[in-house]
């Protein structure tokens, strides 16, 4: 049997890129989205099926491709694993800030639609409450999980699940963007959003396996399937919500939940590094963290927004 040690490291690093290229080619030639305009008079079932297909392609598939970097990260020394965890924290931080911006934009949309001062104030309180409440609840769960994990060697697996939950809540917001674009017949925007989410959800898969690689033992395959579905699957639900029941208030609530989860997950990643290293502040953590923020900025703000505005 050929073990991971017998495979050159560069092949482990390049493998997911090759898979992405193959999948992108298949999607291009098979045109999986079909004719959007033809769905104008489609039944609710047909629209939900289309949103499900799009959700799997934009959410679950890229997260799965990103997780294919697990053998490569697992082959690295612990110092480099810490660097990959810092990279994932940077990715998560950018996502959290982006979600806060989206909350503000939805509040502005409510104001533009004529919402009263009292309604806007109540919405603001709801947004802050969902952020704080989610952070607190996940912190309680995290403390219970950490107490149960004392003496165990699979702390990284548990943090990987926490990351997947936080990313899954973020995926609801991505689905809302796709669903509302579809509902308003902005079909070109749907395609661009799918491309953008595919690219940046690959990095989400990478952030999950960075935590899993910290453990000595490789988790069973069903854990990879579970965290992939947790991180990318909620995009399907978000797209359904965006098509059939979108409102700025709903968006703010879900985004607030996502922000609270993301903040708690960054805390978890920091503690995971502290668990092994003497300090969490150093060149091997600061540089990758900044790199994660820059990477997401290039993918989201430069690539996706640039194409949308073109």
From TrEMBL:
Keywords: Membrane, Transmembrane, Transmembrane helix. The keyword Transmembrane applies. Signal peptide: none annotated. The chain crosses the membrane at residues 12-29, 49-72, 79-100, 120-138, 159-180, 186-209, 221-243, 249-267, 279-299. It comes from the Archaea. This is Divalent heavy-metal cations transporter. It comes from Natronobacterium gregoryi (strain ATCC 43098 / DSM 3393 / CCM 3738 / CIP 104747 / IAM 13177 / JCM 8860 / NBRC 102187 / NCIMB 2189 / SP2).
């Amino acid at each position: 049997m050929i073990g991971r040690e017998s495979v050159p490291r560069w092949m482990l690093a390049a493998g997911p890129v090759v898979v992405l290229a193959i999948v992108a080619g298949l999607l291009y030639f098979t045109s999986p989205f079909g004719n959007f305009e033809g769905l104008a008079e489609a039944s609710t079932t047909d629209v939900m099926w289309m949103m499900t297909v799009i959700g799997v392609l934009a959410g679950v598939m890229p997260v799965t491709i990103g997780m294919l970097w697990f053998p490569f990260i697992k082959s690295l020394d612990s110092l480099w694993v810490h660097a990959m965890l810092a990279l994932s924290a940077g990715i998560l931080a950018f996502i959290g800030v982006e979600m806060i911006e989206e909350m503000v934009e939805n509040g502005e949309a409510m104001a533009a639609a004529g919402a009263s001062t009292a309604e806007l104030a109540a919405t603001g309180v709801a947004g802050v409450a969902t952020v704080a409440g989610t952070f607190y609840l996940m912190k309680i769960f995290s403390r219970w999980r950490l107490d149960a994990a004392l003496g165990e060697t699979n702390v990284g697996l548990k943090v990987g699940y926490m990351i997947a939950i936080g990313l899954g809540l973020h995926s609801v917001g991505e689905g809302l963007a796709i669903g509302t674009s579809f509902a308003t017949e902005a079909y070109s925007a749907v395609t661009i959003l799918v491309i953008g989410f595919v690219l940046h959800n690959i990095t989400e898969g990478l952030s999950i396996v960075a935590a899993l690689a910290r453990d000595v033992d490789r988790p069973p395959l069903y854990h990879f399937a579970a965290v992939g579905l947790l991180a990318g699957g909620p995009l399907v639900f978000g797209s359904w919500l965006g098509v059939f029941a979108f409102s700025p208030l709903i968006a703010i609530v879900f985004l607030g939940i996502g922000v609270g989860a993301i903040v708690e997950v960054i805390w978890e990643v920091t503690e995971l590094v502290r668990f092994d290293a003497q300090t969490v502040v150093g060149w091997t953590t600061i540089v990758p963290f900044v790199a994660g923020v820059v990477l997401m900025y290039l993918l989201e703000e430069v690539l996706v927004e640039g194409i949308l505005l073109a």
